[in-house]
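INTERNAL AUDIT FORM
Audit reference: QA-55
Scope: verify that the stored structure record matches its stored sequence.
Auditor: D.O.
Record contents follow.
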Amino acid sequence: MKRPLANLALTIVALALMPTITALNTSAAGPERPNILWLVSEDCHIFLGCYGDPLARTPTLDKLAREGVLFERCFTQPVCAPSRHTLIAGVYAASSGPGHHMRAQGKIPSWLKGFPALLREAGYFTSNNAKTDYNSPISIEVAWNECGRKAHWRNRPAGQPFFSVFNHEVSHESCLFPEQELPLDFPPMDPARVRIPPYQPDTPEMRADWARHYNRITLMDGQVAAKLKDLADAGLAENTIVFYYGDNGGVLPRSKRFLQQSGTHVPLIIYFPPKWRHLAPAAPGSRIKEPVHFVDFAPTVLSLAGVKKPGYMQGHAFAGKAKEKPNEFVFCTRDRMDDRYDMMRSVVSSRWLYIRNFRPDLPYVQPLDYMFRARGYQSWARVAREGKLTPATAQFWGAKPNEELYDMTADRDSVKNLAGDSAHRATLERMRAALRRHTLEINDNGFLPEGSTLEGYDASRAPGAFPLERVFDLAVLASNRDAANLSKLIEALGDASEPVRWWAAQGCTMLCEKAAPAEAALRKRLEDESGAVQVAAAEALARIGKTDVALPVLERWVTNTDAPFFALQAANVLDRLGESARPALPALKQLVAAATKGKGKGRRADGLYPKRILERIVAVLEGKEPALVYPRVSP
């Protein structure tokens, strides 16, 4: 009995030395609270034994699942930065444009703090080791007591409850790159044993990537084991709730960056020690089938810690004293990835996955430099050039359908699109309605062009900012690619709202030559007050053969360093035009040379992204680099 009393005395002394707000919230008279530990693996799909993968060598996580609670349907964004925004803010990244894009600083109100700051205010020690990558200006100093490679729960004052995060990067996408080989202390996975899903070509490179990823997951499992041992050795295991999860979908082709299950379905296991089992949503060894999303993590941790959830948070606590009703649906988004634009939205239930493609004219696979460093993607491109794709492997390589509907129970690979099946019409309509409702509820900024003054949590919610309901309906109409709707698009080109005009111009682009009657209306938009609308109108005009008026507009915007996102949009259009952009080749070569000598050596919006695309356009037009081949293979 003497030791606990001594520890209590030390705790009281330590608390007296802490900031006032912390001391007040962690007084000896307060209730005891659990420690909370997050163990995160990067870029991991559900390739674990506890999720039924027969090849996985994950004894630590399998044991954690047997003794804890496994969530069968945990979903998130298909790439890390928007996912981390959602995690720390407790709101969908698309609520805080441009935070839904990859590598963009979302605009959030000053009162929206990362949820670890709320834990700090309640007396918790918070540490993050070490990823931030939040796509938002959330203050690191306010959120974390410690953040960095040395951040650790060990560094807290004695007796203080902690919330600690450890990110394991060994399974990151870069593990597939040739230069990232690591020594193993176990027999490596035999590439001949791996299962190649039907949507991928069975190439030696693809098998090698699968085998390497399995090896990295085994290494990650060992790293998790070491963290759990540290916890036990410190005598803290029985007072710590442990989360294990993957930060976004896997890294093999058609996973990361895409909204099929392979890109958004991640593992989630939570262990509740006996002392805190009353906070668990189910008994040890249970498997939760209702869907959860990263937006639910912040309110769940607050619920476990006994901290009230702020009203602005958009998720639902799935454990703890403040546990809420299970989700019927969760939602994922895909927007700009590095330098390439696209727009997809998905709705997920416990059984169904619905995807709406708002730019179905754009191919799934775009020439993303980082993505194509993986040899599996390179081999897929080679097979496409050789004309050897099968109907199944060509499915992901070509144009997209407007809508996709998959039965996740019967079709784990998301290859049988049931959107056109009359037997599932009611399900399709229910998912459609859920997407529309969610879009309006969160004020989805993805329906705004990146770079718009309307982007941001506050700006997009200002009274009369933009008619989101009308914009959503127009985006659906535009992406249906029905020439019967052209008159509505022409009318919308003259609308007072920027996003309405932008979607009208994109709708004309998606109609290609069928949009020829819109030429006069599109020409007017080349002088639009919005750079995004000008770029979209120029692309639509180029698609009806009017490159003589389109290319000068695109060249002007791609050189505009004061509007980097409009420059990036113009670069994307020039690349999509392919051979039609050849008249601009001399100007593009000059731009590349100027960017190499001066600006353009920085990252992302300050120059690298447009420069990288322009370099590719020049290389393809000069025959120095092969263009991606998008074959049409009939089923």
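Auditor finding: record pair retrieved intact. Residues 556-635 form one domain.
Action required: none
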